[in-house]
């Protein structure tokens, strides 16, 4: 059954195959199948061969490739740091859907990073760029770039927020602990 403009769809619903149309806002490509990322109404443009889903919730900042997001680091394990995405930068409204993205160790900073805990720790607030959306749990993020990375670092010893103490190093004003981070120039500490 062909999905057409005006149809209501839900996250994960099949919309079209990627040979037919290009995925746009509110959609993602999973192995050549374009699916909906949000609850919304399909808008299919056959002339430009693109398909999008317009969120029907009243708070619709939808995530797309290239979006800059603000989130909280909820886990740092092996090659991937998990980030709970709170908002899209420049948009004060919280996202309507719950998203978790991941920063792979190779995407954390320019150059070699021996371990991810030298870039992020649980509780840090980061600014990142969305590089790929492969579904609700398959959001890839990148923090390499001067204005990307940690904007608030939390001390692993006492959970206090930390101050910048030189290049990619932070210091806890409460317990004097020093730690490494991939810092953004927009650090708010
Ligand atoms: Zn501390």
From TrEMBL:
It is found in: Cytoplasm. This is Exosome complex component Csl4. The keyword Ubl conjugation does not apply. It comes from the Archaea. Zn(2+) binds at residues 155, 158, 172, 175. One of its GO terms (cellular component) is exosome (RNase complex). PANTHER family: 3'-5' EXORIBONUCLEASE CSL4-RELATED (PTHR12686), EXOSOME COMPLEX COMPONENT CSL4 (PTHR12686:SF8). InterPro entries: Csl4, Exosome_cplx_N_dom, Exosome_Csl4_arc, NA-bd_OB-fold, S1_domain. Keywords: Cytoplasm, Exosome, Metal-binding, Zinc. Pfam families: ECR1_N (PF14382). Non-catalytic component of the exosome, which is a complex involved in RNA degradation. Increases the RNA binding and the efficiency of RNA degradation. Helpful for the interaction of the exosome with A-poor RNAs. Belongs to the CSL4 family. GO terms for molecular function: nucleic acid binding; zinc ion binding. It comes from Methanothermobacter thermautotrophicus. GO terms for biological process: RNA catabolic process; RNA processing. Component of the archaeal exosome complex. Forms a trimer of Rrp4 and/or Csl4 subunits. The trimer associates with an hexameric ring-like arrangement composed of 3 Rrp41-Rrp42 heterodimers. Interacts with DnaG.
